[in-house]
Specification:
The structure holds 2 protein chains of 2 kinds.
Chain A lengths: L2 H47 L7 E4 L4 E2 L7 H10 L3 E2 L8 E5 L2 E6 L2 E2 L4 E2 L2 E8 L2 E7 L9 E2 L4 E5 L5 E2 L10 H11 L11 H14 L9 H10 L6 H17 L2 H11 L1 E5 L2 E4 L1 H9 L8 H11 L11 H17 L5 H9 L15 H11 L5 H6 L3 E4 L3 H15 L8 E8 L4 E6 L11 H4 L2 E2 L5 H11 L6 E4 L4 E2 L5 E2 L10 E4 H6 L3 H22 L18 E2 L1 H12 L3 E2 L5 E5 L5 E4 L5 E2 L3 H17 L4 H5 L6 E6 L5 E7 L3 E8 L10 H16 L12 E6 L15 E6 L12
Parallel strand pairs in A: 1-15, 3-4, 12-14
Antiparallel strand pairs in A: 1-11, 2-10, 4-5, 5-8, 6-7, 8-9, 13-14, 15-25, 16-17, 16-30, 18-23, 19-22, 20-21, 24-27, 25-26, 28-29, 29-30, 31-32
Helix pairs in contact in A: 1-6, 3-9, 5-6, 5-7, 9-10, 10-11, 14-22, 16-18, 16-20
Chain B lengths: L1 H24 L20 H16 L3 H14 L4 H13 L3 H14 L4 H16 L1
Helix pairs in contact in B: 2-3, 2-4, 3-4, 4-5, 4-6, 5-6
The chains are: A alpha+beta, B mainly alpha.
Chain lengths: ~750, ~130
């Protein structure tokens, strides 16, 4: 074989081998590419076909029920409306707006899907008579309304770990105008291309080369969506390739409408502290306090303007830049024929139109924390952060405002910056927790003392102890003795309790011992028969924390949180009916299906007649006992309560109630050092400030036929004449009326 | 004479002053009204509550028990001591086959229903029905 032929053959063999290798390599590359595309497709599937976004769960307040006679001022209603995101206007209000007309308020409420039934938007006028609602008139029909339920406000949210917040829009909820503007500004060929636009990329490349830096992007809306949803913002060739592949896959798999809907829900528009606001719907609510479909053309233009650089065109921090970019968008809209010249002129002349400042993120952290704790048995924190649940609570924003104002005033009395506070305000008749504070800085989202801080409760235990004695065989007129006592405990130590004033006061009625909060008579009675009774009664309200009972429990060494104290006093105030205190009333999913209901519960666990006597003694505390400050401050307004002080003045407590409201106040320090305040000189003052701010109806005792009212000498315990200066009118069980008479002192 | 007259006048004035002072300082005995209150369903809340009762009863007629319960719980939030609200709530629970809740709500109705014979009779009847299950 000639050499030439041999070489030719060898060359041909090499060529074949090379072709074969190349083919094989290409095949391998294609296989890899195919596998990679399958992987990318899987990623897309995961996001698009399941729950595309982690949605924060929203926590709603109670709904405000408006009716003639409701104690409510115009100012208070305005406060609640502003908190709900209603906008004050000067012209006839649209849904979500209101205007003040002299002494009345015209309100266009929003529609709302309540857990029981939907409520339509409604235009109404509310008239006021000083501090009450005088009339509610339907503006369309002119008829008087007896009862109107306003939608609740979002008082907080549980956010996902990535801090993203958004409101989702369905395809048919997106204003057509928004889509047109978005396409005109960001991607004019959106409805023609297949995910990537080579011409646009080339144009951007040339522009960037000419400028020597990145001045133009060539990404389509689909590529932007792919980047936002699946990729990181880092600029690299790999990321660009991934973005292109994913955009192509998205276009193959989904319709243009689905892609633009996803984009509108996904795009990042604003940062508020640690929370990032995504999607046009939420941005519209935050910036303009209006839903997207109510925005003016210049407002939509501003939102679209912000897409290019949420930080660079932030209307709060860089209003001039944001305004210039908005006007640029308006110019594009005019050039594209989306608006005429007249509309363009009026739109660019309009101010930026956003709210003064963004609403705070979770301004009521203590309440929100308790909601989460009470939901714990049904939903984990993780679920709450992603499932977009709607949690309906008893939170009363007006009660919370009054509580915070009263607390601030009360705390200003004491020049103690380290003094901490916890307060709970509840409706003891139906178990609603209306307001809560877990730190003197009420919006500080730290340690929730109202629920977490377990502190000895001191004399706050005495009403339950007294109940045990009264239920058994004593009456408020029974004679007790204030004399020393020494008790050897199981560990061999001797316990020698003393009165707060370290004095002895001799014999007196049980009523007198209670209102003065003397310890020794209660210890005497307690060690004889009351300790086990107390433990049993604590157990009935699920507050017995230890199996071992010990004598010092009689003086409140048991540790409780303000929340637990409130539960104990709920039963006392409610004539012995146990109604679990709750923040939550119902939970629904995103589709408004009810997942959980917490109905009003009521269990009779204590005797009403004995509890009425306890309540009367607690009224005595506020009339002539350790809380007589209340009688001086709120003249002729009956209130019931009890002070509590712990050793060395470390904790200052007051728990008390009016006709419907129960408020518990704790003051102390986190390091448990003395605060120099008793229940009377500390928490009681704060309690009074809160109640004054709150407004209340005086407390009234229920009637019970087993009780007879008699004038009693509080020291000797005998029956006295009604006109004796020191006599007190007390309910006494008919079979325990004293058979002795006392002369006037 | 004039001195005696003046003296008498002064005495009378002094007596009148003392009596006046004594009257002002005399103890006005407190009465049970200061402590006990009406627990009925009077007040400005009566009308909206009556409206909710009507809606609840209509819902009950339509066998929409949960809706009736929702209406009545709203009524109780407005006026928690209204014995009829608790009674209707108990009735709704009975129709919804929740007999323990029925009895618990009836207890509350009884506690607010003193002096209302019609309601007490209705409560007695309903209690018997709930106990039978």
């Amino acid at each position: 074989m000639p050499a030439k032929s041999k070489r030719k053959k060898a060359k041909s063999t090499r060529g074949r081998k090379l072709r074969k290798s190349l083919s094989l390599g290409l095949l391998l590359l294609l296989a890899c590419l195919g596998a990679y595309l399958v992987y990318l497709n899987h990623l897309i599937n995961q996001r698009f076909t399941g729950d595309t976004w982690a949605l924060p769960s929203r926590v709603f307040s109670r709904s405000l029920e408006l009716y003639p006679g409701l104690p409510l001022t115009l100012e208070a209603l305005e406060y609640e409306l502003r908190l709900s995101g209603y906008q004050a206007v000067a012209s006839e209000p649209l849904a979500g707006q209101y205007r003040v007309l002299g002494g009345s308020l015209e309100l266009h409420s929003r529609s709302f899907e309540f857990s029981d039934q939907p409520e339509a938007a409604r235009l109404m006028q509310i008239f006021f008579d000083t501090d009450t609602v005088d009339a509610v008139i339907d503006s369309n029909s002119g008829s008087a309304l007896q009862l109107v339920r306003l939608p609740p406000l979002v008082m907080g949210s549980y956010y996902p770990h990535n801090g993203e917040d958004r409101l989702l829009l369905k395809q048919d909820e997106i204003p057509e105008q928004l889509v047109k503007i978005l396409v005109a500004v960001e991607d004019r060929q959106f409805f023609e291309h297949y995910g990537i636009n080579p011409m646009s990329i080339l144009r951007a490349l040339l522009a960037n080369i000419r400028a020597g830096k990145t001045v133009q992007g060539g990404s389509t809306l689909t590529q932007q969506l792919a980047k936002n949803m699946f990729l990181t913002p880092t600029r690299s060739l790999t990321r660009k390739l991934n973005e292109a592949f994913m955009a192509l896959l998205l276009e193959v798999r989904f319709s243009k409408t689905a892609i633009i809907t996803a984009y509108i829900n996904e795009v990042f528009l604003l940062q508020q502290n640690r929370i990032s606001i995504h999607g046009f719907a939420l941005a519209s609510r935050m910036l303009f306090r209006r839903p997207l479909h109510q925005l003016q053309v210049q407002d939509l233009a501003l939102l679209v303007a912000m897409v290019k650089g949420p930080s660079r065109y932030n209307p709060f921090t860089r209003p001039e830049k944001a305004l210039a970019r908005r006007n640029l968008v308006l110019g594009i809209m005019r050039d594209q024929g989306l608006i005429d010249s007249g509309k363009f002129q009026s739109a660019i002349a309009a101010s930026i139109g956003i709210v003064g400042r963004l609403p705070g993120i979770n301004p009521f952290p203590a309440y929100l924390d308790l909601v989460k704790r009470q939901l714990r048995t049904s939903y984990s924190s993780g679920e709450l952060a992603v499932r977009g649940l709607r949690v309906f609570t008893a939170f009363d924003p007006l009660a919370q405002r009054n509580l915070e104002a009263g607390l601030e005033r009360g705390m200003d009395r004491f020049a103690q910056p380290e003094l901490q506070a916890a307060v709970i305000l509840a409706d003891y008749l139906n178990g609603d927790i209306l307001a809560l504070v877990g730190d003197r800085d009420t919006d500080y989202p730290g340690f929730n003392r109202a629920v977490m801080a377990q502190r000895p409760i001191g004399s706050l235990i005495k009403p339950l102890l007294l109940y045990g004695f009264l239920e058994k065989d004593l009456s408020l007129a029974s004679r007790v003795s204030d004399r020393p006592i020494r008790i050897r405990q199981s560990d061999g130590k001797v316990w020698e309790p003393r009165n707060c004033d370290r004095k002895l006061h001799g014999d007196m009625s049980l009523y007198q011992a209670f209102i003065r909060s003397y310890n020794l008579p209660f210890v005497h009675l307690g060690v004889e028969s009351g300790l086990q009774l107390l433990a049993d009664n604590l157990d009935k309200i699920k507050l017995l924390k230890h199996d071992v009972i010990y004598p010092s429990m009689l003086l409140g060494t048991t540790e409780m949180s303000a929340y637990e104290v409130a539960q104990m006093y709920q039963v006392i105030a409610n004539n012995g009916y146990f109604t679990p205190l709750t923040t939550i009333r119902s939970v629904t999913d995103q589709q408004h299906r009810t997942l959980k209901r917490i109905p009003i519960q009521s269990h009779k666990i204590f005797d009403q007649a004995a509890m009425i006597q306890v309540q009367r003694a607690m009224v005595g505390v506020s009339e002539a006992g350790t809380a007589r400050y209340l009688a001086a401050r709120f003249k002729h307004q009956t209130l019931a309560g009890k002070t509590g002080t712990t050793n060395n003045l470390r904790d200052s407590w007051f728990a008390g109630f009016s006709q419907r409201l129960l408020t518990v106040v704790w003051l102390g320090r986190d390091n448990n050092s003395p605060i120099g305040l008793s229940g009377s000189s500390g928490a009681l003052r704060v309690w009074a400030d809160i109640m004054q701010q709150q407004g209340f109806r005086p407390f009234k005792l229920s009637r019970d036929e087993r009780l007879a009212w008699r004038y009693i000498d509080p020291i000797k315990g005998g029956i006295t004449d009604p006109d004796c200066v020191d006599s007190v009118l007390l309910p006494i069980p008919r079979d325990r009326i004293p058979n002795t008479r006392s002369r006037c002192q | 004479m004039s001195i005696i007259r003046i003296s008498k006048l002064l005495c009378r004035t002094a007596m009148a002053f003392i009596l006046l002072l004594a009257g002002a300082c005399s103890v006005q005995p407190v009465s049970t009204n200061q402590y006990q209150g009406d627990i009925g369903d009077a007040g400005v809340e009566a009308r909206p509550v009556a409206e909710l009762h009507d809606q609840a009863l209509t819902a009950l007629d339509d066998n929409q028990f949960q809706l009736a319960i929702d209406y009545l719980q709203r009524a109780i939030k407005i006026q928690p001591r209204n014995a009829w609200s608790w009674h209707y709530l108990a009735q709704s629970y009975r129709q919804n086959q929740q007999f323990d809740q029925c009895l618990a709500m009836l207890d509350r109705s009884f506690s607010y229903s003193s002096y209302d014979d019609v309601l007490e009779l209705a409560n007695d009847r309903l209690r018997a029905q709930c106990q039978q299950g």
